[in-house]
Amino acid sequence: METTIYFKDIRNKDYNNYPNRIYKVENSRMLIEILDNNHIHGKPYYFTSLQSRDNFILEIKEHISKINNEELEKIQNYWKQKLD
After folding, report:
1. Is the pLDDT of residue 15 over 60?
2. CB contact at 8 A, 47 and 56
3. Model pTM?
4. Residue 1 above 60 pLDDT?
5. Strand 31-36 and strand 64-67: pairing?
6. Are the C-beta atoms of residues 25 and 4 closer than 8 Å to each other?
7. What stretch of H or E contains 51?
C-alpha cells in the first residue's frame, strides 16, 4: 500500500494565509507532485533517486508543514474558487 504525505510550503502564502504550493510525496516514488493554483491536482517533479528526493525534502524541511487530506481538500477548493 502506497503511503502519501502532503506538505504545505509555508514560505509563500496569499493574503488569506493559504499556501501557494503543496508537495505530494509518495513513499516509494522518485517524484514529488507539486500542487498549486495552476496544477491543482499536481505536476510531477522527478528526481534521479529516492535519496535525491529525500535530500530535497530535508533542504526545505524548515519551510514545510505536514497537512492531512481534509486540509488539502480545503486548500484545493479555495484555489478552484479563485480560478472561477
Report:
1. yes
2. yes
3. 0.90
4. no
5. unpaired
6. yes
7. helix 50-60
